[in-house]
Design brief:
Structural class: alpha+beta
Strand order of the largest sheet: 1-13-3-12-11-10
Largest sheet: 6 strands, mixed
Radius of gyration: 23 Å
CATH class of the largest domain: Alpha Beta
């Protein structure tokens, strides 16, 4: 009989609920409920967290971030050195294989780096323009030269989108690879992708850390509605789910079949503003909108006191977080005056919200009310 464990995790504050059997006994197939389905298995062609979570199951990277989120550690690169001028990194690739049994080489790593930099379909090319050259000195030695010294360069190699891919498998057909990768460097392989429903993964016996992988497989299942996902976990139809409504946390803690663990958050919410044209193209208008938002009131209301106001795109406790960024004060009257001075007294905005996302819907209502105080519709 397969041992099963229930867990509900949230990126916002990483709440976890699980059966008392615990992690040590986890085995079999782990089913994970999430909102959206995957969009691709080509890492360079997505900037979605929903894809990156699965990429991290299927592919491996040269350098990893440790469990604390504050340090870098070896991945497929077991070691590296940096030249005195800070421009040249030399990586030693560990003895590892792709899921098809072929060796993972420095040539595959160089191919992956240059592909994310140069491919016309790459969403991440700008982040890797700093790479001047990436070459395989021998099958296990990768030499990367930068155009200028870069403190965060190593951390960019931990991004799932720059995972090491099989050059042979990708060149055999990019579109086919994006649908069903024939070679993976990570803990699992893609068995099946049922679009709109689920991604089915199975253990990769050729993974270099296969002895540490306790699961036989993982199923990422799309359940768009937050409350439906929670009910599915409580009913045993899902082992785990992410994006837990804050409003359900206390209730779920009372479920005798679940244990709640609240871990350090890696979530940060923000508004994406189209500032290419119109009034939003004016910096003063955007500053005024910022001052019209009572962020603490929103955070306290929608997270039921669990969240805190962010002052950076990088969460606290993560690499490169800076805690002293300037924050505009909440001042709707000054915001209203600034909008008038900028010629935006009667500003009307369209705000797009994820349907079924309880937090997004609550934020939208509160923002609508707060902006109205500054004369914004």
């Amino acid at each position: 009989m397969t041992k099963r464990w229930n867990k509900i995790g949230r990126a916002a504050f990483a709440a976890a609920l699980m059966l008392s059997a615990g992690y040590a006994e986890a085995a079999g197939i782990l089913s994970i409920g999430r909102r959206e389905d995957s969009t691709t298995f080509d890492p360079i062609k997505s900037a979605q967290n929903v894809d990156n979570w699965v990429f991290s199951n299927v592919f491996d990277v040269l350098v990893r971030v440790d469990k604390t989120g504050t340090k870098l550690e070896p991945g497929l690169a077991e070691s590296w050195t940096l030249s005195d001028d800070g421009l040249t990194y030399t990586f030693q690739i560990r003895d590892a294989k792709f899921s098809d049994g072929s060796p993972i080489t420095a040539e595959d790593a160089a191919f992956s780096l240059l592909r994310i930099r140069d491919h016309e379909g790459s969403l991440w090319s700008d982040s890797y323009k700093i790479i001047e050259t990436a070459e395989a000195a021998d099958p296990k030695t990768l030499v990367v030269k930068l155009t200028t010294p870069s403190a965060p360069f190593l951390s960019t190699l931990a991004l799932p989108n720059v995972s090491v891919l099989s050059k042979k498998a990708v060149e055999a057909g990019e579109d086919a690879f994006a649908e069903l990768p024939t070679a993976s460097s990570g803990a699992f392989t893609v068995k099946e992708w049922r679009r709109g429903d689920r991604v089915i993964l199975e253990k990769n016996p050729n993974f270099w850390q296969a002895d540490r992988v306790k699961l036989d497989g993982v199923e990422w299942i799309s359940v768009p509605d937050d409350n439906t996902r929670m009910l599915n976990v409580q009913a045993g139809q899902l082992d785990t789910a992410i994006f837990v409504p804050f409003s359900r946390v206390e209730e779920l803690k009372k479920d005798p079949n679940l244990t709640v663990h609240i871990d350090t958050s890696t979530r940060e919410d923000h508004l994406l503003i189209n500032h290419e044209h119109g009034m939003l193209a004016k910096k003063e208008v955007r500053q005024a909108l910022d001052m019209a938002i009572d962020k603490k009131a929103i955070v306290d209301t929608v997270t039921f006191g669990i969240g805190t106001v962010a002052n950076s795109y990088i969460p606290k406790g993560s690499l490169y977080h800076y805690d002293a960024n300037y924050q505009y004060p909440y001042d709707p009257e000054k915001a209203k005056a600034m909008l008038a001075e900028a010629g935006a007294s009667d500003l009307t905005l369209n705000y797009v919200v994820n349907a079924g996302n309880e937090v997004d819907e609550q934020i939208a209502v509160l923002l609508q009310q707060q902006f109205a105080k500054a004369g914004v519709t």
